[in-house]
Amino acid sequence: MANAKTELTKSDRHTFLAVDYGRARMGLAIADSEMRMAQPLSTMERINRNEDMRRLRELVREQGVKQIVVGLPLRLDGTRGEMAEEAERFAERVRKQIGVPVEMVDERLTSWEAERLLEEVQGRFIHDEKLTGHKKPKNVQAKMTVDAMAAAVILKEYLDRQEQAAAKAERNMKANP
After folding, report:
1. Quick check: is 3 in a domain?
2. What pLDDT is recorded for position 165?
């Protein structure tokens, strides 16, 4: 029996968009169901609700997004604060105005993880620059912001969870034919 990844047809492919919601800006990351690898996309500076939603709708259309994942900024103890409630309202607006399914994902410590990953990547670039004498392109540096990387971490968490659920379902089907 082929595994689920190899059975995907072109029509089964889904593009996922993750949003690390913030009051000043939103980090964005993207992945598709075939590669299942979250990549930082960009950081969107917030303007106002209508303009933000218009730009997000345009991005969803351009990228063919079928699922949006929004980070849920819970407190470390797991309780909801003001930002979590704001992110939930944002996710509901996205669901209603863009018409794409939206799921919330616990984003505790994602910014910390994003900063750690960026430091690691930047350290490698600096090391490579010293070895080769080549500077990294400015656009690579611009794309690799903490917010976009945090969105990639959120999306990776979501994709990992989906993969674990699919594997568990497959094991259950084999155990109970």
Report:
1. no
2. 79
